[in-house]
Amino acid sequence: xxxxxxxxxxxxxxxxxxxxxxxxxxxxxxxxxxxxxxxxxxxxxxxxxxxxxxxxxxxxxxxxxxxxxxxxxxxxxxxxxxxxxxxxxxxxxxxxxxxxxxxxxxxxxxxxxxxxxxxxxxxxxxxxxxxxxxxxxxxxxxxxxxxxxxxxxxxxxxxxxxxxxxxxxxxxxxxxxxxxxxxxxxxxxxxxxxxxxxxxxxxxxxxxxxxxxxxxxxxxxxxxxxxxxxxxxxxxxxxxxxxxxxxxxxxxxxxxxxxxxxxxxxxxxxxxxxxxxxxxxxxxxxxxxxxxxxxxxxxxxxxxxxxxxxxxxxxxxxxxxxxxxxxxxxxxxxxxxxxxxxxxxxxxxxxxxxxxxxxxxxxxxxxxxxxxxxxxxxxxxxxxxxxxxxxxxxxxxxxxxxxxxxxxxxxxxxxxxxxxxxxxxxxxxxxxxxxxxxxxxxxxxxxxxxxxxxxxxxxxxxxxxxxxxxxxxxxxxxxxxxxxxxxxxxxxxxxxxxxxxxxxxxxxxxxxxxxxxxxxxxxxxxxxxxxxxxxxxxxxxxxxxxxxxxxxxxxxxxxxxxxxxxxxxxxxxxxxxxxxxxxxxxxxxxxxxxxxxxxxxxxxxxxxxxxxxxxxxxxxxxxxxxxxxxxxxxxxxxxxxxxxxxxxxxxxxxxxxxxxxxxxxxxxxxxxxxxxxxxxxxxxxxxxxxxxxxxxxxxxxxxxxxxxxxxxxxxxxxxxxxxxxxxxxxxxxxxxxxxxxxxxxxxxxxxxxxxxxxxxxxxxxxxxxxxxxxxxxxxxxxxxxxxxxxxxxxxxxxxxxxxxxxxxxxxxx
Length: 813
Ligand code: ADP
Ligand code: ASP
Ligand code: MG
Known about the structure:
Elements: E1 2-6, H1 14-28, E2 33-37, H2 43-55, H3 61-79, H4 82-109, H5 114-138, E3 144-145, H6 165-178, E4 183-187, E5 190-192, E6 198-200, H7 206-216, E7 221-226, E8 247-249, H8 250-258, H9 269-275, E9 279-283, E10 292-295, E11 306-319, H10 329-339, E12 344-349, E13 355-361, H11 365-375, H12 377-381, E14 389-400, H13 410-420, E15 425-430, E16 436-442, H14 443-458, E17 463-470, H15 474-494, E18 496-504, E19 508-511, H16 521-526, E20 529-530, H17 533-543, E21 548-552, H18 557-560, H19 563-567, E22 572-575, H20 585-597, E23 602-603, H21 615-623, E24 628-634, H22 637-645, H23 652-661, H24 670-673, H25 676-688, E25 699-701, H26 713-722, H27 724-736, E26 740-748, E27 751-759, E28 772-779, E29 787-792, H28 796-811
Parallel strand pairs: 1-2, 1-7, 2-4, 3-4, 7-9, 8-10, 17-18, 17-21, 21-22, 22-23, 25-27
Antiparallel strand pairs: 5-6, 9-10, 11-13, 11-14, 12-13, 14-16, 15-16, 18-19, 19-20, 24-26, 24-28, 26-27, 28-29
Helix pairs in contact: 1-3, 2-3, 2-4, 2-5, 3-4, 3-5, 4-5, 6-7, 7-9, 10-11, 13-14, 15-28, 22-23
The protein binds adenosine-5'-diphosphate, aspartic acid (ASP) and magnesium ion (MG).
Protein name: Bifunctional aspartate kinase/homoserine dehydrogenase I
EC number: 1.1.1.3, 2.7.2.4
GO molecular function: aspartate kinase activity; ATP binding; homoserine dehydrogenase activity; metal ion binding; NADP binding
């Protein structure tokens, strides 16, 4: 004998029911079949909703009833040949009329007890099982319908009734032996008490109905047919990379379902486990897929079999100095909760015995406080115990696996993966079987936690980094092109999937959690929403995706202002924007501190020398204990370009324009020409070398005449033209000494300055061409001969590649 159970989606339409009929007919060729079905998907919720509305005097329940009736009648019309429809239609109509009578009763009385609700929801399964039974018989396959309420006896704990197995097993056996039918159809979920009043077995309870039947008849197997191809390593609605678990032990399946894997209703395993009946989880819509087999053993080679989570948890803490060393506190606590029928989901106790912490469903929290405070009334009055504390909006995330007990360090890996992603753990619990490690986290973090852990334990093959990029100018465009070009390489060689989730420029913004298509990002962005930085940032924070990196490829101070709010949510920041790192010392220090505290990289290598490894090399020196005494540097690609190209034959303004057109300058070229940009860079280097410096402390020996500093960028070009003689004189003077002009940044013993210098041919800085940058580091270890970093220090392509490298560093933290 086989017991098959089909869930709500499998019964969700005439098409789906036809599939079910085919599957069952195939099975019935080899064995007798007991078929248990759920209500059509969504029906139980709709019925409950009708009841609530009716009880609240809201007449709109009638519209919902109409919807339910139409859906069922339409299904019959598509499912059953016209000639045989009328009797089925009238059965369905009759059941729907009964539902209406019940709802009208609730509406009149303005009251709906759990008992009434059970009666009301029972119609979902009554309807679906009636329909599929008719489908068999109309199709020439004989089947018999049996009311599960005549077989399954429970107590009167409506909505979550407890089965009386002695009576139930006997009734099932008697019935099954009395019928010679090969296919028996039963409604799942419903049962009855000693007075024949309808009860239900808890939401999702049709699985349990099937398991009770399977155990009672010693079935050869129980098959749970649903809409996924088996039990998966995590909830597939949250973790797109979740994988099917081909084989799993009863204990693991129980732990996973108890901790939230909705695919099986938790009590389902118990009856079949004691009879050693294998349970299959199969997909109605892909019947050929292997599915999952749940049995005595697990073939899993993974240490972790699956990850699940429970929402709506409240943590109750009983604390007090009077508890230490005195036995009996915990038994009184648990007795109080048990007497109030409050189910304890998780327990932890600190070794100091100063507190006990239990997790319960949030719906029971207020009641728990009432009964526990009452139980410890005396101790609370005498200050030995504090009143029960309740913390809500919590969830549990649990790792499950039989193999865990043979391996050390799993909890360490779990907690550090969560920690790296800024997920705070409120409490932890590990069962003594070591089959389950549970962590309590904020509900806002639970989806992220499940993904982080899935990545940690199942996706060594691939890690996903989620990027939010602001700025689609020269550098931004090049960065997107490089990301597009390298996506395949990164997946293959670094096992890194770079997912561009958000993109924004000053006009438009776009967010797509599944990744923005880099082949047409510009078109997609143009059709995006009007950009709003605050909304963009809030949506990054709210999404709370793992490995999130915010990438600032602008030069905009407003954008730099949002870094702190991101870092403190453990979101990494990569910036080619120099504003933050060169802002007030306090702000720079705050950002650095947030980066350390929240384990979120704050990387800005491209702030100095574009893609050249300048800041990274300096950081390496400092981390390994070196000390920087002096730095000599040419750090402005723009000024280098300008002074390498200007020889008095072409106007100075034209050469500056060329530098701007070729993309070397800041959007406002005066920032380069005035020396401000170089000041920012030497300031950043000094700070990274451990010096507490402000911008105002840097001496700037500028060369721009006053007249060039005022007005707009256009005014600036005009003014430069008028001052051509001034620039020519500067050039001629250097030329006469056989020197080149270099705009040099110096740092010496804690002091920094920038300015134009005449550089003779034998000088280290002389041979510097085009837009090259160079930095000479003189340190404890590099005393006479400096460490030199030199190369192209400006340009969109190299800057973008420096930003890219920072992104990879942030991703691999
Ligand atoms: P049915 O109506 O067939 O009983 P359910 O909706 O109760 O189906 O359960 C199946 C759903 O459970 C799947 O569609 C899936 O989204 C969800 N689910 C949650 N966790 C898991 C998991 N670990 N493995 C498989 N499915 C899961
Ligand atoms: N129809 C019931 C519910 O939705 C039982 C089930 O589907 O298993 O909870
Ligand atoms: Mg279910």
